């Protein structure tokens, strides 16, 4: 792979999906079931990671999964995923979830950070392209990702 192809921008792998909350997605309280939302956001994170790494990926961890408010039947749920950090074989993806009203106004309902690992044809970790960070916001995300990575490694050492 050439040096030029080994670097990608955040925009190269950005993903946005839209879902309508249906009756089959609801829990007994009439809100979007958390497990359904986790499935949707895991899929978005996986697509972002696949686009960046150009390979199969696996979810290694989910950090900071925050449920801010509920979603209800017929709500339009918008999920945006973007790369925030790359290691040698791993990638961090930020996934934000919103409810979008008929005027296009979005209200946040969830945020999560996923760590995904790129896999080769034998399901072994493989090197990922470097992430080019261009903006102040992207640099801030990168710095936050480094802190989250340190926290994950510390928790791993402590047996969590």
UniProtKB/TrEMBL annotation:
The species is Sellimonas caecigallum
Q: Which UniProt keywords apply?
A: Hydrolase
Record domain HotDog ACOT-type: where: 11-122
Protein name per UniProt: Acyl-CoA thioesterase
Q: What is the lineage of its organism?
A: Bacteria, Bacillati, Bacillota, Clostridia, Lachnospirales
CDD domains hit by this protein: BFIT_BACH
Family statement drawn from the similarity comment of this UniProt entry: Belongs to the acyl coenzyme A hydrolase family.
Q: Which SUPFAM superfamilies does this one have?
A: Thioesterase/thiol ester dehydrase-isomerase
Domain of life, per lineage: Bacteria
Q: Which Gene3D superfamilies match?
A: Hotdog Thioesterase
Query: Keyword rRNA-binding, does the record have it?
Result: no
Q: Which InterPro entries match?
A: Cytosol_ACT, HOTDOG_ACOT, HotDog_dom_sf, Thioestr_dom
Tagged with keyword Hydrolase: yes
């Amino acid at each position: 792979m050439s040096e030029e192809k080994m670097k990608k921008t955040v925009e190269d792998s950005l993903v946005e999906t839209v879902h309508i909350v249906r009756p089959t997605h609801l829990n007994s309280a009439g809100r979007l079931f958390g497990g359904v939302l986790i499935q949707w956001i895991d899929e978005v994170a996986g697509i972002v990671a696949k686009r960046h790494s150009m390979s199969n990926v696996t979810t290694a961890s989910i950090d900071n999964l925050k449920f801010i408010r509920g979603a209800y039947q017929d709500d339009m749920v918008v999920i945006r995923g973007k790369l925030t950090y790359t290691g040698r074989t791993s990638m961090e993806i930020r996934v934000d979830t919103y409810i979008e009203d008929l005027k296009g106004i979005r209200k946040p309902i969830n945020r999560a950070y996923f760590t995904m690992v790129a896999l080769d044809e034998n399901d072994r970790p493989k090197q990922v392209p470097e992430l080019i960070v261009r903006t102040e916001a992207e640099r801030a995300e990168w710095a936050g990702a480094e802190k989250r990575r340190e926290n994950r490694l510390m928790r791993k050492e402590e047996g969590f």
